[in-house]
Amino acid sequence: MKSLLIFDLDGTLLDTIADMAESSNYALAKCGFPTHEITAYRFFIGNGINKLFERILPEGEKNQENILKLRKYFLEHYEIHNSELTVPYAGIPELLIKLQSAGIKIAVASNKYHKATEKLVKLFFPEIQFIAIFGQREGIAVKPDPTIVQDILALAKVTKTEEVLYIGDSGVDMQTAQNAGVEACGVTWGFRPRAELMELSPKYIVDKAEEISSIIHL
């Protein structure tokens, strides 16, 4: 029986791509760089915002100075507009309520910067008592480094890794689970293709949120 489920945020709990793209394109335009189609951001997002900015910059412009400029304008825009187009994925609110009612601990482990991670989780899932909500924190390595998972396990007082299921939509998430020594569940409704998940051989791959209930026998 699983006692703790850890969810990625972007592409797993919330479809954030449109708001992320809007703010990224705003920053690019402010700096005089070409923008990208929203669909392209499916492969830009996933390793923290500084890596996002590096990926969206033109070749020859991927330097620290430009990354910091984009970061400034992105945060300026995203702080105001980060929930305008964002929505929970189908079945996710119901799944979280079901897990909470069953006494299962729930946490979020995201590479989105921490302030926005907390804000969005509390905004869209106010009825859920998460054991931890962690985004990218200063001085803490981003996923697939396992530190974020280890910190959650310590807070949840879970010592048996077999009681943990990590759920995400990308190869980075599957690697994070592997590095932390916990079982992984890939979801196909997010930003990355099924093939990327399959390359990392997670224990489970699901197409609908309700399938997670079956995995943990709820």
The CATH top-level class label of the largest domain: Alpha Beta
- In terms of DSSP E residues, the strand content is 15-25%
Q: Strand order within the widest sheet?
A: 5-4-1-6-7-8
The tally of strands reads: 8
Secondary-structure element string: EEHHHEHEHEHEHEHEH
Provide a count of the helices.
Answer: 9
Spans of at least 5 consecutive residues with low confidence: none
- Helix fraction? 40-55%
Give me the CATH superfamily of the largest domain.
HAD superfamily/HAD-like
Globally, the shape reads globular
What is the count of structural domains?
Answer: 2
Report how far the terminal alpha carbons are from each other. 10 Å
Overall CATH architecture of the largest domain: 3-Layer(aba) Sandwich
Radius of gyration: 17 Å
Largest sheet: 6 strands, parallel
As an assembly, this protein is: single chain
Derived structural class: alpha/beta
CATH topology title of the largest domain: Rossmann fold
Give the helix/strand layout.
Elements: E1 4-7, E2 14-15, H1 17-30, H2 49-56, H3 64-81, E3 87-88, H4 92-101, E4 105-113, H5 114-124, E5 132-136, H6 147-156, E6 164-168, H7 171-180, E7 183-187, H8 194-199, E8 204-206, H9 210-215
Parallel strand pairs: 1-4, 1-6, 4-5, 6-7, 7-8
Antiparallel strand pairs: 2-3
Helix pairs in contact: 1-3, 2-3
